[in-house]
Structure formats: C-alpha cells, structure tokens
Amino acid sequence: MNRYRWSLIGCFFIGSALLAQADEIRTLTGKSITGSLDKITDKEITLKDGANSVATPMAQVIELNLRPGQSAPSVSPYFEVVLVDDSLLRCTKIVYAAKDVKLTLTSGITVQVPLSALVSVLRDAGNEALRKQWVRLLKAKTLDDRIFVAPGGDLNSVPGSLGAIDEEKQSIKFRPAVGKELDLEFAKLQGLQFLRVQVPSEQAICKIIDTDGNQLVASKLVGDASQVHLVTPFGAKVSVETKLLAKIDFNFGKLTFLSDLDMKATESGFLGGFTSFRKDANLDGNPIILADKKYDKGLSMYAGTELEFNLGGKYKEFK
To answer: What are phi and psi of 184, to 5 degrees?
Structure first.
C-alpha cells in the first residue's frame, strides 16, 4: 500500500514539473499558446506540442514566457548599467576599452556594447540607501557629464566632461566644470553618467529578460531552444543561451495597460498621506468589479488625482 501511495505522489510531482516547464506565447487577442520553443524567426515564433507545431505571426505576439525569473539579481554586490536604448543591466564585472565596454551580467551573459551606448553606471546598486540618493540626484537634469563619489556614504555628483579611457589602467579622463583635468580610476568612482543626445539607429522590436531580471533591448532576434541571437538598436551582436532567459517581451507599442507603466502621481493633501491610486485593484485593494464583471487590469483613483505617463513616442492609439 505504501509503495502504491509513493508511486502516485511521484507521478504527481513529475507531472507538475512538466507542466511548469511549458513555454507560453501571449497574443494581442488574449490567447495563450503553450508548448516547447522550437524556433524564432523575424516573421513568427513556433512552439511544439508533442508532434504538432504551432506558428504564431510575430505581429500578434505580446510576450514569450520561458521560465520563472526574478526582479533582483541572484548575486551581490553588482553594478547597474543603463544604455541609450533603455536596456537595464546588472553586472558583476565591467571592462572599459577606448571605444567599447564589456559587461558580464549577474546571470553569466556577456555583452559588449559601444561606449557611445553607455548612459550611466552605478556601483553597489543593491545598496538601498545609496540607490535612493542616486535616484534623487539623477532627477536634477544637466547638460554635462557627471561623476559620482560617496565619501562617508553620502553620494555626491560632480559635473564636467568625461573623456578618453585608459584600458590598461581602467581609468577615464574627466575635466570638472571648475578645475584641471583629472585621470580617475573607475574602481574609485561610485557612478558616472554620460550626457547622450543621439538615439539608436534601429527600431526596437523586443526586450529579452533573463532569469536575474536583466533587460536587453533588441532590434533583430532569431533563435531556437538552445540559443537566441540578437542585434541591439545600436548594432551590437549578442548570443544568449535560451536557458538563461525568463521572458521575451514583444510589446513595443502593440498593447500596453496603463497599470503596467511607470507613472508620476500628484500629491493629494486631503488624503492625509495615503496613496491616491491603486494598480489592478479597487481603492480597498480588492478586485476591480464593474457591472458585476471582474477586471484584472485597471487603475483606481480618488477624485482630483492626476497621473503622468512618459510614453516615449512608442504608442499611436489610446483606448
């Protein structure tokens, strides 16, 4: 009897594991297609379900889910790097050269990008106190490059002009707004920010998200169950093992809910410090229900609340 029970339990867990590993395509129409990833081309994504293959046109794909991921890196400390195409990368190692930068992501992926694609770098980005100071300082717009130092734990920015890189010394020339030019080692900087005015030459089609939450934007993408090959909007070529990817987000202006976007809310004094809105819930935190119909997505707001969204020119229609 005990042997029979254990056989049932064993089958249950094996079945659960197989179900959990299914890849999933979500489409514009809300349809969900599951199976195992076969291939990705510029025109379609094909999943296999046993002996059957199902191809979904790329124009209909919102996202491809491959496996569970996490929003924070699995290792610490790490650098946080932002690129001109809005890629967000957490790195264990950065090697600077005269014209490019080699990034080793926390998931093990290696990416080499042009120096001209680099917008900002923050060392020890997992330090919450440091991050709050970083976010506050970045809100102050400037027409200069900036370096960031943290004497005694207090982050300070210094405006100026970043120049040539010494690959051997891993240092960079910096001319402050006031004073002589300096040769600064990257290891002694808490962060740096380049003033970038150019835009990527190619239009983005997707964002690949690895198991550590790193987000790398692509303008071209092909692949299969073992590897995906992508080209970034600024021309860098990257190959990634598919097993390191959690999701590929193709929702660039196809269909986006406002509750999935970052927003800025005005403060409502009469609420006494309480939040003036909720995402994907009513104001009590319960499901949104209108005329007896439940809605999984939406925004609930108190009267007088104003929400501001930066759409970045990616959308054509509002419904």
So the answer is: -110, 130
DSSP strand pairing (145-149 vs 227-231):
unpaired
Q: Computed from CA positions of residues 307, 250, 83, 315, in that sequence, does the dihedral angle turn out positive or negative?
A: negative
CB 86 within 8 A of CB 120: no
Give per-10-residue mean pLDDT for the chain (319 aa): 42 42 87 94 94 92 93 89 95 96 95 94 95 92 92 92 96 94 96 89 91 95 96 92 95 77 69 74 89 86 84 73
Q: Which residues contact 191 (CB under 8 A, 6 or more apart)?
A: 120, 121, 122, 123, 134, 147, 148, 155
Residues with Cβ within 8 Å of residue 20, at least 6 apart in sequence: none
Kindly state the helix (H) or strand (E) to which residue 128 belongs, with its residue range. helix 128-138
pLDDT 10s digits, 44-95: 999 998 889 999 999 899 999 999 998 888 788 999 999 999 999 999 999 9
Q: How many whole angstroms separate alpha carbon 161 and alpha carbon 142?
A: 12
What's the pLDDT at 257?
A: 82
Contact in structure between 221 and 211 (CB atoms under 8 Å): no
Three-state DSSP at 105 gives: strand
Of the candidates 294, 287, 290, 297, which has an alpha carbon nearest to the alpha carbon of residue 258? 297
The burial class, CB within 10 Å (0-12 / 13-18 / 19+), for 62 is: middle
What's the pLDDT at 201? 79
| Cα–Cα distance for residue pair 20/36, rounded to 1 Å | 11
d(CA 186, CA 96): 9
- Closest alpha carbon to 94 in 73, 115, 74: 115
CA gap 48, 38 in Å, rounded: 6
Q: Are 46 and 100 in contact (CB under 8 A)?
A: no
